[in-house]
Amino acid sequence: MPSQPLLQAAPEAPAAAADPEAGYVRPPGVLVDVHALGGRSYREMRDVIGEQLGDLIEVVPLAGGGGQEMRFERGRLRVVEDRIYMVAVPLPSPMRRTDALVALGFPAQADRYVILHREYRLNNAWGFRRIRLKRVGPDTELVREVEAWQEVPGEPAAIR
């Protein structure tokens, strides 16, 4: 009988901030902690956003009650009623999809990817409705940008 278990538990999503009173601390090695930002209050996370995404460049209102898109030096946010529902981050260099997920605060392993012509997609993973990993090209596994949707405004509940 082995002293160590043969199978280890699947890795869990890292905790964003265990205690909101204690403040947020970005995990080591994470470029932008998308996992921690999705679904949070923009006002509460403003300092963290500035530190991770850089200066705000412009704010664009979105049609159909979609709130507004905020464009920063190193990424974009979509916010409706002070809630961050989408975070998009162009990667500093092309990465494999597992490395890209880890660089954005997610676990490396995912259950099942939907493989499309120009992207990999995760649906209903780690509290996000959709995570799009945009590929460099159709013939490569390398990813150039990640777009994480905590929710999709206006999407019928039956689709979720």
Helix content: 10-25%
Q: Which series of helices and strands comes N to C? A: HHEEEEHEEEE
Distance between the termini: 44 Å
Shape: globular
Beta-strand segment tally:
8
* Low-pLDDT stretches: 13-21
Spatial order of the strands forming the largest sheet: 1-2-3-4-8-7-6-5
Beta-strand residue fraction: 25-35%
| Biggest sheet layout | 8 strands, antiparallel
Q: What is the domain tally?
A: 1
> Averaged pLDDT, please?
87
| Number of contiguous helices | 3
CA-based gyration radius: 17 Å
Class from secondary-structure proportions: alpha+beta
Could you walk me through the main structural features you see in this protein, from its secondary elements to its overall organization?
There is one protein chain. The chain is built from 3 helices and 8 strands. The chain is of the alpha+beta class and 160 residues long. The protein has one domain (34-149). A hairpin with a 7-residue loop joins strand 7 (128-135) and strand 8. The longest helix is centred in the N-terminal third of the chain and has 12 residues, at 42-53. It is globular and about 45 Å long.
Quick recap:
The protein has 3 helices and 8 strands. With 160 residues, the protein is of the alpha+beta class.
What's the topology here?
Elements: H1 34-37, H2 42-53, E1 56-61, E2 68-72, E3 75-80, E4 83-95, H3 97-103, E5 114-115, E6 119-125, E7 128-135, E8 143-149
Antiparallel strand pairs: 1-2, 2-3, 3-4, 4-8, 5-6, 6-7, 7-8
